[in-house]
Amino acid sequence: MAFRVAGRHLGEIVVLEPQVHQDDRGSFMEAFRADQYRELGLPDQFPQENHSISRRGVVRGLHFQWTPPMGKVMRVTAGAAFLVAVDIRRGSPGVGRWYGIEVTAENRLQVWAPPGFARGFCALVDGTVVQYRCTTFYNPRGESGIRWNDPRIAIDWPVERPLLSDKDSKAMSFDEWLARPESDRLDP
């Protein structure tokens, strides 16, 4: 097996630990294997992969897409980041609950957050590279965000004054998301 499940959280978030082969030349690992993802109950088709580079203290998120619903596998290939996923599905037993984990280029962990979860991260060092595979293509008309510091969610971020995009600083509250019309929601 190229991967070991290092943990399952909030019922649906999966943390994967890849098997790393290391010697005096360096290291090698399989970053993705469709057959093993399938065996673990994860999607095995990712039509889009994104790559971001951030300075220390940058918070990106909490982002999500409802049309079509998007899941993501996130990993850090340089630096370190605090990766977060929040259940935003109205009617879910875990609605409003979050999970966060420090992922580094050294620990090589991967985090699967399925559709219905908002995702974000905080870069812990300059030059942090986060890559994420997406289960569908980006649709700007079917995506949005929830404020990174929403008090109802109360994420314990490792930064007090993050660097934010204009879009993220103006994101809606969790309550505003839950009050949106049925067509704009990710219900279980």
In short:
With about 190 residues, the protein is mainly β.
Describe this structure in words.
The chain is mainly beta and 188 residues long. It has one domain: Jelly Rolls. The chain contains 3 helices and 13 strands. The protein has helices at residues 34-39, 166-169, 174-178, and strands at 3-9, 13-18, 20-23, 26-29, 48-54, 59-65, 72-78, 80-87, 98-104, 110-113, 117-123, 128-134, 143-145. The strands form 3 sheets. It has a 6-stranded antiparallel β-sheet with strand order 1-2-10-7-12-5, with no helix packed on it. A 5-stranded antiparallel β-sheet has the order 9-8-11-6-13, with no helix packed on it. The relative contact order is 0.23.
Rough outline: globular
Structural class comes to mainly beta
Q: Output the CATH class name.
A: Mainly Beta
Provide the number of structural domains: 1
Strand order of the largest sheet: 1-2-10-7-12-5
CATH architecture: Sandwich
Considering the chains and any ligands shown, give keywords for the structure:
188 residues, Jelly Rolls, single chain, five-stranded antiparallel β-sheet, mainly beta
Q: What order do the helices and strands come in, and which of them pair?
A:
Elements: E1 3-9, E2 13-18, E3 20-23, E4 26-29, H1 34-39, E5 48-54, E6 59-65, E7 72-78, E8 80-87, E9 98-104, E10 110-113, E11 117-123, E12 128-134, E13 143-145, H2 166-169, H3 174-178
Antiparallel strand pairs: 1-2, 2-10, 3-4, 5-12, 6-11, 6-13, 7-10, 7-12, 8-9, 8-11
